[in-house]
Automatic annotation (TrEMBL):
UniProt domain RNase H type-1: residue ranges: 60-220
Organism: viral metagenome
Transmembrane segments: none
InterPro entries recorded: RNase_H (IPR050092), RNaseH-like_sf (IPR012337), RNaseH_domain (IPR002156), RNaseH_sf (IPR036397)
Family (UniProt): Belongs to the RNase H family.
Name used for this protein in its record: ribonuclease H
Amino acid sequence: MIREKYNGESDQTVKHKFRRTGPLDAYIYKTGSDNQDVEQSQDNMMVHPIKPIIAEQDTLIPTTHIFTDGACTNNGKRNANAAWGAIIVADKDYKVLNRLSAAIPKSEPQTNQRAELQALLKGLQAAEQIDGFIKLWSDSQYAINCASVWGPSWKRKGWVKQGGVIQHLDIIKPLVNLAESMRSRIEFKWLKGHKGGDAQHQFPWMFNHQVDALATAALC
């Protein structure tokens, strides 16, 4: 897996009342819990391990960034509320092209993990309508791995996993299928969310803060 670490930037994180899970919530899949706390990662950014066919260096191919995020109050409790947000950003001058957000329907589980997955799915669906190369940004390793690592493995095994039931399979199935169909022109990128200091005003963290606020505003 390729890692990019930005030296000289603050590693200080901003506390966020809507999250109990950190950037390494990827490991929650081992126990199947939606409300388990995990240790924060010290890395700032990670590139999706599966390289796209299109070379990023080809400046003739337009690039669009899509930032996704989920929010949840009272995660894991009966009175929880969840929502998702996505921001579409042009690579040139980082101009915001569109903002999307909505609450998770009350008929569905209200969890942070489901919100993150739904955000990534909605971002990928938006990417389907955009020409060129797409970079999908998320601060949830869990969501990215469901789309690109564990999900394809579960699919090959008939949508089963060792040690338990796959949660949120109704979102993961279309997420994996769409990601595979767009594999030639997408790249998933994880970044450490809620960075403080000067980093919060710089790309890409500035849009991570914005999409977090967008998802939070969509909470019922």
